[in-house]
Protein backbone atom coordinates (compact mmCIF):
# COMPACT_ATOMS: atom_id res chain seq x y z
CA UNK A 1 0.00 0.00 0.00
CA UNK A 2 1.44 3.43 -0.87
CA UNK A 3 2.10 5.83 1.98
CA UNK A 4 -0.73 8.20 0.99
CA UNK A 5 -3.23 5.36 1.10
CA UNK A 6 -1.76 4.20 4.42
CA UNK A 7 -2.19 7.69 5.93
CA UNK A 8 -5.72 7.93 4.48
CA UNK A 9 -6.58 4.58 6.12
CA UNK A 10 -5.14 5.84 9.43
CA UNK A 11 -7.17 9.07 9.17
CA UNK A 12 -10.34 6.99 8.73
CA UNK A 13 -9.50 4.72 11.64
CA UNK A 14 -8.59 7.36 14.24
CA UNK A 15 -11.17 9.36 16.16
CA UNK A 16 -9.70 12.82 16.74
CA UNK A 17 -7.41 14.25 14.05
CA UNK A 18 -5.86 17.67 14.64
CA UNK A 19 -3.69 19.58 12.14
CA UNK A 20 -0.78 21.70 13.39
CA UNK A 21 0.38 24.08 10.67
CA UNK A 22 3.23 26.51 10.07
CA UNK A 23 4.33 28.98 7.41
CA UNK A 24 5.09 26.18 4.93
CA UNK A 25 1.39 25.59 4.28
CA UNK A 26 1.03 29.20 3.04
CA UNK A 27 4.17 29.30 0.86
CA UNK A 28 2.12 28.09 -2.13
CA UNK A 29 -0.18 31.07 -1.54
CA UNK A 30 2.79 33.37 -2.16
CA UNK A 31 3.67 34.10 1.48
CA UNK A 32 7.37 33.48 2.17
CA UNK A 33 8.27 31.31 5.17
CA UNK A 34 10.23 32.81 8.06
CA UNK A 35 13.35 30.61 7.89
CA UNK A 36 15.45 29.31 5.02
CA UNK A 37 17.13 31.21 2.19
CA UNK A 38 13.88 32.90 1.03
CA UNK A 39 12.64 33.44 4.58
CA UNK A 40 11.44 36.75 6.02
CA UNK A 41 14.10 36.51 8.73
CA UNK A 42 16.85 36.46 6.09
CA UNK A 43 15.64 39.99 5.16
CA UNK A 44 14.75 41.29 8.64
CA UNK A 45 16.50 40.31 11.88
CA UNK A 46 13.61 39.10 14.08
CA UNK A 47 15.32 40.49 17.18
CA UNK A 48 15.32 43.95 15.59
CA UNK A 49 12.00 43.81 13.77
CA UNK A 50 9.73 41.25 15.45
CA UNK A 51 10.43 41.66 19.16
CA UNK A 52 7.95 43.56 21.31
CA UNK A 53 10.81 45.63 22.81
CA UNK A 54 11.87 46.77 19.30
CA UNK A 55 8.26 47.68 18.51
CA UNK A 56 7.96 49.79 21.67
CA UNK A 57 11.36 51.43 21.13
CA UNK A 58 11.08 52.11 17.39
CA UNK A 59 7.58 51.49 16.03
CA UNK A 60 8.32 53.33 12.77
CA UNK A 61 11.17 50.89 11.98
CA UNK A 62 9.10 47.81 12.83
CA UNK A 63 6.16 49.14 10.81
CA UNK A 64 8.46 49.15 7.72
CA UNK A 65 8.67 45.34 8.00
CA UNK A 66 5.00 45.00 8.88
CA UNK A 67 4.00 47.04 5.80
CA UNK A 68 6.29 44.88 3.63
CA UNK A 69 4.74 41.69 5.06
CA UNK A 70 1.21 43.02 4.59
CA UNK A 71 1.70 43.44 0.84
CA UNK A 72 1.97 39.67 0.38
CA UNK A 73 -0.32 38.51 3.18
CA UNK A 74 -3.29 40.73 2.34
CA UNK A 75 -3.27 39.65 -1.33
CA UNK A 76 -2.75 35.94 -0.56
CA UNK A 77 -5.51 33.43 -1.21
CA UNK A 78 -5.93 29.96 0.31
CA UNK A 79 -4.17 27.21 -1.66
CA UNK A 80 -5.15 23.56 -2.15
CA UNK A 81 -3.63 22.56 1.18
CA UNK A 82 -5.84 24.98 3.13
CA UNK A 83 -8.87 23.88 1.10
CA UNK A 84 -8.26 20.17 1.65
CA UNK A 85 -8.05 20.69 5.43
CA UNK A 86 -11.30 22.68 5.33
CA UNK A 87 -13.03 19.91 3.35
CA UNK A 88 -11.67 17.26 5.74
CA UNK A 89 -13.22 19.18 8.64
CA UNK A 90 -16.51 19.48 6.75
CA UNK A 91 -16.58 15.69 6.20
CA UNK A 92 -15.80 15.04 9.86
CA UNK A 93 -12.26 13.71 9.38
CA UNK A 94 -10.53 16.73 10.98
CA UNK A 95 -11.55 18.25 14.32
CA UNK A 96 -9.30 21.31 14.60
CA UNK A 97 -6.51 23.28 13.02
CA UNK A 98 -3.93 24.82 15.34
CA UNK A 99 -1.94 27.26 13.24
CA UNK A 100 1.17 29.33 13.92
CA UNK A 101 0.29 31.43 10.88
CA UNK A 102 -1.18 34.92 11.14
CA UNK A 103 -2.57 35.10 7.58
CA UNK A 104 -6.14 33.89 8.27
CA UNK A 105 -6.03 31.60 5.21
CA UNK A 106 -7.41 28.53 7.01
CA UNK A 107 -10.62 30.40 7.85
CA UNK A 108 -10.75 31.90 4.37
CA UNK A 109 -10.57 28.35 2.96
CA UNK A 110 -13.57 27.40 5.10
CA UNK A 111 -12.03 25.84 8.23
CA UNK A 112 -14.23 26.58 11.23
CA UNK A 113 -12.34 25.33 14.30
CA UNK A 114 -9.05 27.25 13.89
CA UNK A 115 -6.82 28.17 16.82
CA UNK A 116 -4.47 31.01 15.85
CA UNK A 117 -1.57 30.45 18.25
CA UNK A 118 0.26 33.61 17.14
CA UNK A 119 -2.78 35.79 16.42
CA UNK A 120 -4.06 37.25 13.18
CA UNK A 121 -2.51 40.15 11.28
CA UNK A 122 -5.88 41.26 9.90
CA UNK A 123 -6.54 43.20 13.14
CA UNK A 124 -4.64 46.15 14.59
CA UNK A 125 -4.60 46.58 18.35
CA UNK A 126 -4.05 49.63 20.56
CA UNK A 127 -1.85 48.59 23.51
CA UNK A 128 -3.23 51.62 25.38
CA UNK A 129 -6.99 51.11 25.35
CA UNK A 130 -7.21 47.61 23.85
CA UNK A 131 -9.35 48.81 20.91
CA UNK A 132 -9.07 46.60 17.77
CA UNK A 133 -9.43 47.90 14.23
CA UNK A 134 -9.75 45.75 11.12
CA UNK A 135 -6.77 46.23 8.78
CA UNK A 136 -7.47 48.26 5.65
CA UNK A 137 -5.11 49.60 3.01
CA UNK A 138 -5.42 53.30 3.93
CA UNK A 139 -4.78 52.45 7.58
CA UNK A 140 -1.51 50.57 7.04
CA UNK A 141 -0.31 53.19 4.57
CA UNK A 142 -0.37 55.91 7.26
CA UNK A 143 3.24 57.02 7.89
CA UNK A 144 5.21 56.46 10.02
CA UNK A 145 2.52 54.14 11.42
CA UNK A 146 -1.25 54.00 12.05
CA UNK A 147 -2.29 55.46 15.41
CA UNK A 148 -5.13 54.84 17.83
CA UNK A 149 -7.60 57.71 17.26
CA UNK A 150 -8.20 57.93 21.00
CA UNK A 151 -4.74 57.34 22.56
CA UNK A 152 -2.66 58.70 19.67
CA UNK A 153 -0.17 55.81 20.11
CA UNK A 154 1.05 53.37 17.39
CA UNK A 155 -1.31 50.52 16.57
CA UNK A 156 0.21 47.01 16.65
CA UNK A 157 -0.87 44.05 14.52
CA UNK A 158 -2.82 41.66 16.77
CA UNK A 159 -0.06 39.04 16.54
CA UNK A 160 2.32 37.61 19.14
CA UNK A 161 5.74 39.24 18.83
CA UNK A 162 8.86 37.58 20.19
CA UNK A 163 9.05 38.48 23.87
CA UNK A 164 5.24 38.35 24.24
CA UNK A 165 3.34 35.47 25.78
CA UNK A 166 0.59 33.47 24.09
CA UNK A 167 -2.82 34.58 25.44
CA UNK A 168 -3.90 32.09 28.13
CA UNK A 169 -7.26 31.37 26.43
CA UNK A 170 -5.46 30.44 23.19
CA UNK A 171 -3.00 28.12 24.97
CA UNK A 172 -5.84 26.52 26.88
CA UNK A 173 -7.87 25.85 23.71
CA UNK A 174 -4.82 24.49 21.88
CA UNK A 175 -3.81 22.20 24.74
CA UNK A 176 -7.39 20.92 25.07
CA UNK A 177 -7.42 19.97 21.38
CA UNK A 178 -3.96 18.39 21.63
CA UNK A 179 -4.91 16.34 24.66
CA UNK A 180 -8.01 15.03 22.86
CA UNK A 181 -6.21 14.16 19.63
CA UNK A 182 -5.14 10.61 18.76
CA UNK A 183 -3.68 11.64 15.40
CA UNK A 184 -1.83 14.85 14.43
CA UNK A 185 -0.89 16.13 10.97
CA UNK A 186 2.18 18.40 11.40
CA UNK A 187 2.35 20.49 8.25
CA UNK A 188 4.94 23.01 7.05
CA UNK A 189 6.66 23.95 10.29
CA UNK A 190 10.33 23.97 11.24
CA UNK A 191 9.31 23.14 14.82
CA UNK A 192 11.77 25.54 16.46
CA UNK A 193 9.62 28.26 18.04
CA UNK A 194 8.22 27.58 21.51
CA UNK A 195 5.77 27.18 23.11
CA UNK A 196 3.99 26.37 19.78
CA UNK A 197 6.61 23.77 18.82
CA UNK A 198 5.83 21.84 22.03
CA UNK A 199 2.32 20.87 20.87
CA UNK A 200 3.26 17.85 18.70
CA UNK A 201 5.44 16.53 21.54
CA UNK A 202 2.50 16.81 23.94
CA UNK A 203 0.30 14.96 21.45
CA UNK A 204 2.92 12.21 21.09
CA UNK A 205 3.33 11.82 24.85
CA UNK A 206 -0.45 11.36 25.07
CA UNK A 207 -0.18 8.52 22.54
CA UNK A 208 -1.12 10.28 19.28
CA UNK A 209 0.19 9.15 15.88
CA UNK A 210 2.22 11.88 14.18
CA UNK A 211 2.26 12.37 10.39
CA UNK A 212 4.60 15.10 9.22
CA UNK A 213 4.40 16.88 5.85
CA UNK A 214 7.41 19.02 4.98
CA UNK A 215 9.94 19.71 2.24
CA UNK A 216 12.76 18.82 4.66
CA UNK A 217 13.40 16.98 7.91
CA UNK A 218 12.80 18.86 11.19
CA UNK A 219 13.48 18.11 14.91
CA UNK A 220 10.22 16.14 14.90
CA UNK A 221 11.18 13.84 12.03
CA UNK A 222 13.62 11.55 13.82
CA UNK A 223 12.08 11.89 17.29
CA UNK A 224 8.27 11.74 17.25
CA UNK A 225 7.16 11.47 13.61
CA UNK A 226 5.58 8.14 12.70
CA UNK A 227 5.17 8.86 8.98
CA UNK A 228 7.22 11.55 7.19
CA UNK A 229 5.77 12.66 3.84
CA UNK A 230 8.42 14.70 2.07
CA UNK A 231 7.11 17.26 -0.40
CA UNK A 232 4.74 20.18 -0.92
CA UNK A 233 1.76 20.36 1.39
CA UNK A 234 -0.79 20.99 -1.39
CA UNK A 235 0.34 18.00 -3.47
CA UNK A 236 0.55 15.60 -0.53
CA UNK A 237 -2.73 16.65 1.07
CA UNK A 238 -4.63 16.37 -2.21
CA UNK A 239 -3.14 12.88 -2.79
CA UNK A 240 -4.27 11.79 0.69
CA UNK A 241 -7.67 13.38 0.18
CA UNK A 242 -8.32 11.45 -3.04
CA UNK A 243 -7.74 8.25 -1.08
CA UNK A 244 -10.11 9.31 1.71
CA UNK A 245 -13.25 9.44 -0.39
N1 LIG B 1 5.04 22.42 1.81
C1 LIG B 1 5.39 21.89 3.01
N2 LIG B 1 6.35 22.44 3.81
C2 LIG B 1 6.94 23.56 3.35
C3 LIG B 1 6.62 24.16 2.11
C4 LIG B 1 5.63 23.54 1.33
N3 LIG B 1 5.25 24.02 0.13
N4 LIG B 1 7.42 25.26 1.95
C5 LIG B 1 8.19 25.35 3.06
N5 LIG B 1 7.92 24.32 3.90
C6 LIG B 1 8.47 24.06 5.22
C7 LIG B 1 9.94 24.40 5.38
O1 LIG B 1 10.73 23.26 5.05
C8 LIG B 1 10.01 24.70 6.89
O2 LIG B 1 10.27 23.52 7.65
O3 LIG B 1 7.79 24.91 6.13
C9 LIG B 1 8.62 25.21 7.24
C10 LIG B 1 8.57 26.71 7.49
O4 LIG B 1 9.34 26.97 8.65
P1 LIG B 1 9.37 28.44 9.26
O5 LIG B 1 9.61 29.43 8.18
O6 LIG B 1 10.30 28.39 10.43
O7 LIG B 1 7.87 28.68 9.76
P2 LIG B 1 7.20 28.20 11.11
O8 LIG B 1 7.68 26.86 11.51
O9 LIG B 1 5.74 28.39 10.92
O10 LIG B 1 7.73 29.30 12.16
C11 LIG B 1 7.16 29.27 13.44
O11 LIG B 1 8.34 31.29 13.96
O12 LIG B 1 9.07 33.37 13.37
C12 LIG B 1 8.10 32.70 14.08
O13 LIG B 1 5.97 33.49 14.58
C13 LIG B 1 6.73 32.97 13.54
O14 LIG B 1 4.85 31.46 13.48
C14 LIG B 1 6.21 31.60 13.15
C15 LIG B 1 7.08 30.66 13.97
TrEMBL record:
<dbReference type="InterPro" id="IPR026590">
    <property type="entry name" value="Ssirtuin_cat_dom"/>
</dbReference>
<feature type="binding site">
    <location>
        <position position="129"/>
    </location>
    <ligand>
        <name>Zn(2+)</name>
    </ligand>
</feature>
<feature type="domain" description="Deacetylase sirtuin-type">
    <location>
        <begin position="1"/>
        <end position="245"/>
    </location>
</feature>
<keyword id="KW-0808">Transferase</keyword>
<feature type="binding site">
    <location>
        <position position="151"/>
    </location>
    <ligand>
        <name>Zn(2+)</name>
    </ligand>
</feature>
<dbReference type="Pfam" id="PF02146">
    <property type="entry name" value="SIR2"/>
</dbReference>
<dbReference type="GO" id="GO:0070403">
    <property type="term" value="F:NAD+ binding"/>
</dbReference>
<keyword id="KW-0520">NAD</keyword>
<dbReference type="GO" id="GO:0017136">
    <property type="term" value="F:histone deacetylase activity, NAD-dependent"/>
</dbReference>
<dbReference type="InterPro" id="IPR003000">
    <property type="entry name" value="Sirtuin"/>
</dbReference>
<dbReference type="InterPro" id="IPR050134">
    <property type="entry name" value="NAD-dep_sirtuin_deacylases"/>
</dbReference>
<feature type="active site" description="Proton acceptor">
    <location>
        <position position="118"/>
    </location>
</feature>
<dbReference type="InterPro" id="IPR029035">
    <property type="entry name" value="DHS-like_NAD/FAD-binding_dom"/>
</dbReference>
<keyword id="KW-0862">Zinc</keyword>
<keyword id="KW-0479">Metal-binding</keyword>
<feature type="binding site">
    <location>
        <position position="126"/>
    </location>
    <ligand>
        <name>Zn(2+)</name>
    </ligand>
</feature>
<protein>
    <recommendedName>
        <fullName>protein acetyllysine N-acetyltransferase</fullName>
        <ecNumber>2.3.1.286</ecNumber>
    </recommendedName>
</protein>
<feature type="binding site">
    <location>
        <position position="148"/>
    </location>
    <ligand>
        <name>Zn(2+)</name>
    </ligand>
</feature>
<dbReference type="GO" id="GO:0046872">
    <property type="term" value="F:metal ion binding"/>
</dbReference>
<dbReference type="InterPro" id="IPR026591">
    <property type="entry name" value="Sirtuin_cat_small_dom_sf"/>
</dbReference>
Amino acid sequence: MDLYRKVAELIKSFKYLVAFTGAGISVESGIPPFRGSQGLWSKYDPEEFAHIESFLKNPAKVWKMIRDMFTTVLEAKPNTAHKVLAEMEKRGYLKAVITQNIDGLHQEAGSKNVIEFHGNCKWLLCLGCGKKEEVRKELIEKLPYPKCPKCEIPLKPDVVFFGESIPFSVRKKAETEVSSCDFMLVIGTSGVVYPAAELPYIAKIRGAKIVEINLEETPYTFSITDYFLKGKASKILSEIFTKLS
